[in-house]
């Protein structure tokens, strides 16, 4: 049962990050870069974050390098909290979202970073000695 829940957490977190990356592409990365600059974050990081979300999301869905991807995603989430969401508070301020979901995503990614390989993953298929 634990393995099943871990797989679900990995895949769902991957889908959510993939959706966020796709959303940034649909908004236009130039627009996202402009928004980043408006909150004091270098605009080029919009491209980095979008790539991390897209590629990292796919890698989580596939279960490839899950531990490493999770650590990178934690860094992106912590950056989002401290640059864009902290001032709005935990639940938001009515004009912008809070950081409650980011905290949940951080905890899921942290669990994946320390949990090890799960079944139904490329990590297991490629790197387990039993296979």
What would your notes on this structure say?
By secondary structure, this protein is mostly helical. The protein has one domain (about 1-120). It has helices at about 1-25, 30-40, 45-60, 65-85, 100-115, 120-125. α1 packs across α5 (about 100-115). The longest helix has 26 residues, at about 1-25. The radius of gyration is 16 Å and the shape is globular. The chain is about 75% helix and about 0% strand. The protein has six helices and no strands. The model has no long low-confidence stretch (mean pLDDT about 95). Belongs to the DoxX family. Pfam families: DoxX (PF07681). InterPro entries: DoxX, DoxX-like_oxidoreductase. It is found in: Cell membrane. Keywords: Cell membrane, Membrane, Transmembrane, Transmembrane helix.
Features:
131 residues, mainly alpha, 74% helix, globular, DoxX-like_oxidoreductase, membrane, DoxX
Multimeric status of the protein: single chain
Query: Strand fraction band?
Result: under 5%
Q: What is Rg? A: 16 Å
Would you report the number of β strands?
Answer: 0
**How many structural domains?**
1
Mean pLDDT: 94
Largest sheet: none
Membrane topology: Multi-pass membrane protein
Main location: membrane
InterPro entries: DoxX, DoxX-like_oxidoreductase
Subcellular location: Cell membrane
Provide the fold topology:
Layout: H1 2-27, H2 29-38, H3 44-62, H4 66-85, H5 100-115, H6 122-127
Summarize the structure.
This protein is mainly alpha-helical and 131 residues long.
């Amino acid at each position: 049962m634990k393995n099943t829940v871990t797989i679900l957490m990995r895949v769902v977190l991957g889908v959510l990050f993939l959706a966020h990356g796709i959303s940034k592409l649909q908004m236009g990365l130039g627009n996202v870069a402009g928004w980043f600059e408006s909150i004091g974050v270098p605009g080029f990081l919009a491209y980095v974050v979008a790539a991390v979300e897209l590629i990292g999301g796919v890698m989580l869905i596939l279960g490839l390098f899950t531990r490493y991807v999770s650590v990178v995603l934690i860094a992106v989430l912590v950056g989002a909290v401290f640059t864009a969401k902290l001032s709005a508070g935990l639940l938001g301020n009515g004009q912008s979202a809070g950081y409650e979901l980011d905290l949940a995503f951080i905890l899921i990614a942290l669990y994946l970073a320390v949990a090890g390989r799960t079944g139904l993953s490329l990590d297991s298929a490629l790197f387990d000695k039993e296979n």
